[in-house]
Amino acid sequence: MIDLYYWTTPNGHKVTIFLEEAQLNYDLKLVNIGKGEQFDPKFLKISPNNRIPAIVDHSPTDEGEPISIFESGAILFYLAKKIGQFLPTDIRVEMEVMQWLFWQMGGLGPMLGQNHHFNQYAPEKIPYAINRYVKETERLYGVLDEQLKDKEYIAQNYSIADMAVYPWIVPHQRQQQNLADFPNLKRWFETVKNRPAVQKAYEIAKNLNTEATITEESKKILFGQGRR
Ligand SMILES: N[C@@H](CCC(=O)N[C@@H](CS)C(=O)NCC(=O)O)C(=O)O
Q: Among 67, 135, 52, which Cα is nearest to 44's?
């Protein structure tokens, strides 16, 4: 059994998508980041960076003690290796997947996160910051669109790279992007969206019926963090 420490955000969806695709048994452990539950010392032992997602695998492949993992890219990598799926073993294809996984983790996620922040949550509308991150989002969408030319998925077959990227494209409207401007990306987006496991992952999130994560109260928790 795998415990998934989760909240209904893009980085959380990456892992429910994987677990649904793989049909692995898992137990959802909700961490309400809007209420500050990510600072619970028990959670910090698993995820020292006070962020979801994180997992604890109680039956690791080495049959040793339960293993805990934070950072969504590391989790996807671990799970793909565990079941031998969604990460090809051919070194060239594996590296294709890993490059795009790292591209998502180091670029797409952080930049689009800043886009959300300055467009929607910052107390002042700062035109320079909004423009900077909307433009960078546009650039990254363009890079992805180019990669998806003549390809059904980001690397050769559906992989953990697609699972990492998709949840960040879902909020494209609030990132001020029009998918019609990126035809290859749009086609890929529809393909991934229609996968039964992806539908299931989003249905799980919807059925949890969690309250809004970003409220005036939670902004103080989420956006006022300094050294603990
Ligand atoms: N690089 C991390 C980012 C995780 C992340 O930013 N998680 C957000 C939700 S999407 C979070 O837990 N925020 C809580 C906080 O900011 O305290 C990953 O990919 O796992």
A: 52
